[in-house]
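Continuing the series of single-chain predictions for the mutant panel. This is the parent chain; the variants come on the following pages.
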Amino acid sequence: MAEHTTLLLFLTFTLFSAIAYCQSDSITQLWVVLDDVNQTYTIYNTSQPNFIAVASFDNSINQTGWAKLDVITTSGPNQKYTDFQQMYAAGFVEGHITRSLIGMHWINTVAGFCQEPLSHQCLQLKKFLEANLNWMKEQISAYGTREYFWHHINLYLLQATGLQDGYSNYPGVLNTDIDVLGLYFFQVGGDMEDLGELFPSLSKIRSSVGQDNHWGFGRGHCSALLRLLPDFSDLYVAQDTWNDLPSMLRILKRYNFDLHLLPSSKDSIPGNIMTFSSYPGVLSSGDDFYLISSGLLSQETTIGNSNPDLLKYITYTSVLESFRSMVANRLASSGKEWAFYFSQFNSGTYNNQWMIVDYNKFVPFEKKPTDGLFYLLEQIPGTIYYEDLSQLLYNQSYFGSYNVAYFPNIFNASGMPALVNQFGDWFTYDKNPRALIYKRDVPKVVDMNSMTRLMRYNDFMHDPLSSCNCTPPYSAENAIACRDDLNPIDGTYPFSALGHRPHIATDMKLANFSLSLSLSFLAISSPTYDDLPPFQWSKSDYNTMSHVGHPDLWMFPLILFNGTYPMA
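Parent structure:
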């Protein structure tokens, strides 16, 4: 508890310097050196020949809407540095070099939630997270030296601890002493959507500190699309994040870690390099959107769970979602392997529809798919189901994802039929507004520009597919890129997801076959402004929500991300 208090005080103390730092848009580099004798980690701002980790940080949020981060670790000559040492160093240097944005992002999104003295509800959450953490440590102790999965769960914990210590300026000493109500909160942010159902009172706390309470049915959390061009020349993959307005401090990351399958192994992991969209203090994507050196692209949209009978499957003897997704990203060489690793110890939290594209299996102009090109996986509490849908993709030339389960067994078990009966087609898979927009507009996608336009599309006041039984008779939720801030505050809606709330599509990421070869992707960080007025804090009725470090006007361009420097 003392550590939790110290972290909150430190976050507040650094706020003013963080604001100033956010205005500085220059590239910063830091090196980490491990002392062989004392086994302590020291950070330098000049090049060090014997470094274990180096980070390069470009804070260009005011110019592009994104910061950029590269983190590289090395095992050194003769594998001098272990995987454990590397991952702690990776977190340590990231926590230090991005500390300004971490502080601001905490204030904007977490501060005030479960603050001390802890309420009964927050004590219950803390107890659950600590029990889960201790259970994972027990499994690591038993299996970490011989099972790939648990070795890499351990590495993720070490990275999280390093992040915590690097941010707080603690002496760098290898450990996994994690404060579950500290920066660890950032690692389990997605899981909190379902833990909020397990501990219902938490949603009231969330609302009381000014955050949108979208822990409930109808919550939209991302749009995604796979588009196979008509001549089979290319495969586009894109994802829009839907999130709350205060979440818009963003970092594009490239991790390059010299890791191995096991502590004693010389065999490198398939996914040693990955590029992805992320947030300050978050070690996964969270959106999620990843390009991986194995040739895989993984992304998801949230499908949630609306069946309270399944909550019994959420227990502390499981592995939370961000852990499993990052381990799958690192260990898998195929979509099927990715699904296998992700399926281990299902937590039933942050229940998503995952799309795994294996660009190794894509052959331009080949009219028949290679098995394994596209795997779809869906998770709900108690069940994970996946299939190879490569043939389906080639048959219909696209696959759209919009927060509704595709597989009938998942759709039915998650409680969706009851919502269809109560509210109608909005909750169906094939008649959902976004499903119909994709069906109508995907044929217009013939190049990257038209793909971008579709992923940024929202013409809710004029498009008949955005209509609803509402007053006025449309909703900005019913679009590929939602802008719920533009729904009238005095409107009437059958359920809150269609109404006026601070929930918007914050970005768009897009890759194709050629970009995937260099782990590059296109990205834009702004609520959509193509057919709508750009979002501006000073003109929004949500301007009392915390947005420390945010630009006022969000009208940034599309950029190409391939790290803070070209990859050799």
